[in-house]
Amino acid sequence: MPKKRRSGGRTGSKGGRDGSVHCAKCGRLVPRGKAKRVTKFVSLVDGTIGKELRDSGAIVPRRQESSWYCISCAIHTHKVHIRSSDDRHKRDKIR
Ligand SMILES: [Zn+2]
């Protein structure tokens, strides 16, 4: 039977159980391999003050924040997009 996705919609290795994570939006418990991780950089300083500091040549610290989303929430919030059959079978990174 043809597969819709090469990986079965999962990331990581083929076999065995993977851990679970909670969706950041709805709180649903999803397998780690099926959840989407979104990483963003958050500045520790407020917007306008940060811009002034950056213009004056200072290095403004940024913090890395990652959160996990279930597939429903990832699609609803436009973190990932529905792709055509051809796009799904491309071997580059999933976005
Ligand atoms: Zn969710």
UniProtKB/TrEMBL annotation:
Protein name (record): 30S ribosomal protein S26e
One Gene Ontology CC term in the entry: cytosolic small ribosomal subunit
Alphabetized Pfam families for the sequence: Ribosomal_S26e
Any GO molecular function: structural constituent of ribosome
The UniProt record lists the keyword Ribosomal protein: yes
Superkingdom as given in the UniProt entry: Archaea
Alphabetical keyword list: Ribonucleoprotein, Ribosomal protein
Cross-referenced InterPro entries: Ribosomal_eS26 (IPR000892), Ribosomal_eS26_CS (IPR047864), Ribosomal_eS26_sf (IPR038551)
Species this chain originates from: Promethearchaeum syntrophicum
Single biological process term from Gene Ontology: translation
